[in-house]
UniProtKB/TrEMBL annotation:
Organism: Lupinus luteus (European yellow lupine)
UniProt xrefs under CDD domains: TCP1_epsilon
Catalytic activity as recorded in UniProt: ATP + H2O = ADP + phosphate + H(+)
Family: Belongs to the TCP-1 chaperonin family.
Protein name: T-complex protein 1 subunit epsilon
Subcellular location, record wording: Cytoplasm, Cytoskeleton, Microtubule organizing center, Centrosome
Keywords for this protein: Acetylation, ATP-binding, Chaperone, Cytoplasm, Cytoskeleton, Hydrolase, Isopeptide bond, Nucleotide-binding, Phosphoprotein, Ubl conjugation
Length: 535
């Protein structure tokens, strides 16, 4: 029993009728958990593949997001059920580790749960089902190694990387520009990649967007784009061979850290104080000029007096630049971030071949381009689009393409898409099930059936007859012993994914199977749901 008050301040009593609530245990709890997982998978199922539908998500404050990226949809959804939250975490894990396949991993987990429910109804113990799934996942992952192909790429031969990124982008809203965006993503990754160590730091790639223009205007800039302009309208808009001072100290007189009070009772004292302030500004600007700086980029602001002095001394400046952008500028230009004017030396200046201010359309929006930097290992992908939603979705799509290119540099093994890898794994798992005499063979066979949900969903979303199409492709794979036949989602006229150039990364596909199996095992082992009030 609890006492509460309504909006008029009148008290009322809440009775918690715990005796009327029935706690879920055993098979009922497991079925309830499976239903929650299947409900989340059902939402994403229609978003799978190149012909998948988009979801529109509206936030409480009225912001609208349109996306078919599984991780984004689940992040934006308001999920209360704890098992459904596990599915959200599953998609997030795939996004953090691989960057692509966030929809497929949830659909696969939902299929595994659906098959597990049938086995539980037949009286098979959940632990046996979980063990069978674990065995089947190992068989599938090993089989993927056998059907995978390796391809060599280099700085001159980028086509394999571009084709793989195009496969990722073909299921996004931006698929009409997938070729140009894939090329931009690959060039950006190779610009920051360390090919000897097979390592890519995606933090060096900045993705910036500006409403206006069209998607085809998206460009790759070998440098940094900052959403700022020169602090004074009369400062030069283009600086060649710039020597850049990168400061985190403000252009203003130092302030005492203790409480203080200044009494000014005569005009002379005020003039002395004003001259001292001017001298501070003058010394700061002169210090920057003395070390040879031709552009100042400052993390903090400065008042009109400092701005006027900088303009008179012919020293262009940019203010209120964020900390992350400041770090990228320092990396790109080879400069050092200086926290105090006294530490400013010529060696700490960054160098850029060209710094220019560019305006867009009739809105007078301006951005600063820092190009031809001393160290080109920091690049910017600058996205244009008709509205904010298109730009945000393009950013998410570019992120997926960047992650795929990074994964291929780390491990250049690929499997073919269009559901061909899943069908091939399903055939291998079903063949292996006969070698296991125990109850686990039912679970292993069920795992093989669950793998077929992915190609079936691809066929369904493409407007094909799902069962008929899957049966035809599966029989073709078995007959020709060729694992690269998949669903022809784009009506090209051939089911050979090698001919269609539909690739996926091997590590991404393996991660999908392993993560989905782990989460399903966890859900199957939960046989009691206890709320906090029952502790």
């Amino acid at each position: 029993m609890a006492l509460a008050f309504d909006e008029y301040g009148r008290p009322f009593i809440i009775l918690k009728e715990q005796e009327q609530k029935s706690r879920l245990r055993g098979l009922d709890a497991q079925k309830s958990n499976i239903s929650a997982g299947k409900a989340v998978a059902r939402i994403l199922r229609t978003s799978l593949g190149p012909k998948g539908m988009d979801k529109m998500l509206s936030s409480p404050d009225g912001d609208v997001t349109i996306s078919n990226d599984g991780a984004t949809i689940l992040e934006q959804m308001d999920v209360d059920n704890q098992i459904a939250k596990l599915m959200v975490e599953l998609s997030r894990s795939q996004d953090y580790e691989i960057g692509d396949g966030t929809t497929g991993v949830v659909v696969l987990a939902g299929a595994l749960l659906e098959q597990a429910e049938k086995l539980l109804e037949r009286g098979i113990h959940p632990i046996r089902v979980a063990e069978g799934y674990e065995t089947a996942s190992r068989i599938a992952v090993e089989h993927l190694e056998h059907v995978a192909n390796k391809f060599e790429f280099g700085v001159t031969d980028l086509e394999p990387l571009i084709q793989t990124c195009m496969t990722t982008l073909s299921s996004k809203i931006v698929n009409r520009c997938k070729r140009s965006l894939a090329e931009i993503a690959v060039k950006a990754v190779l610009a920051v990649a360390d090919l000897e160590r097979k390592d890519v730091n995606l933090d060096l790639i900045k993705v910036e967007g500006k409403v206006g223009g069209k998607l085809e205007d998206t460009e790759l800039i070998y440098g940094i784009v900052v959403d700022k302009d020169m602090s004074h309208p009369q400062m030069p808009k283009q600086i060649e061979d710039a020597q850049i001072a990168i400061l985190t100290c403000p252009f203003e007189p130092p302030k005492p850290k203790t409480k203080h009070k200044v009494d000014i009772d005569t005009v002379e004292k005020f003039q002395t104080l004003r001259k001292q302030e001017q001298q501070y500004f003058d010394d700061m600007v002169q210090k920057c000029k003395d070390v040879g700086a031709t552009l100042v980029i400052c993390q903090w602001g400065f008042d009109d007096e400092a701005n006027h002095l900088l303009m008179n001394r012919n020293l262009p400046a940019v203010r209120w630049v964020g900390g992350v952008e400041l770090e990228l500028i320092a990396i790109a230009t080879g400069g050092r971030i200086v926290p105090r004017f006294q530490e400013l030396t010529p060696e700490k200046l960054g160098k850029a071949g060209l710094v220019r201010e560019k305006s867009f359309g009739t809105t007078k929006d301006r951005m600063l381009y820092i190009e031809h930097c001393a160290n080109s290992r920091a690049v910017t992908i600058f996205i244009r689009g008709g509205n904010k939603m298109i730009i945000e979705e393009t950013k998410r799509s570019i992120h997926d393409a960047l992650c795929v290119a990074r994964n291929l540099i780390r491990n250049n093994s690929i499997v073919y898409g269009g559901g061909s890898a899943e069908i091939s794994c399903s055939i291998a798992v079903e063949a292996a099930a006969d070698k296991h005499p125990g109850v686990e063979q039912y679970a292993i066979r069920a795992f093989g059936d669950a793998l077929e949900y992915i190609p079936m969903a691809l066929a369904e979303n493409s407007g094909l007859q799902p069962i008929e199409t899957l049966s035809a492709v599966k029989s073709q794979q078995i007959k020709d012993n060729y694992p690269h036949f998949g669903i022809d989602c784009n009506d090209v006229g051939t089911n050979d994914m090698r001919e269609q150039n539909v690739f996926e990364t091997l590590i991404g596909k393996q991660q999908q199977i392993l993560l989905a199996t782990q989460v399903v095992k966890m859900i199957l082992k939960i046989d009691d749901v206890i709320s906090p009030s029952e502790y």
